[in-house]
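Ticket #4471: structure output looks truncated?

Reporter: J.K.
Steps to reproduce: submitted the chain below (55 residues) through the standard prediction queue, then opened the result file.
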Amino acid sequence: MTTLENVTAVLKLVLKLFQQKGVTQGNPGLTFTDVVEALCLPKSTVSRLLATMKS
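Returned output as attached by the reporter:
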């Protein structure tokens, strides 16, 4: 996958997971592990993608 494809996959996944889990009192919502497991990518790859998206 290209970086752009990875970023698109992350954004789609985060939206989907937020819709499923939501954020309620006592439930912080998504964790980094949720995103990594759902994408089936190495933690280092997801970390770099999120850092790139942040900057």
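Triage note (M.O.): checked the attachment and the full token line is present. The chain has three helices and no strands.
Status: closed, working as intended.
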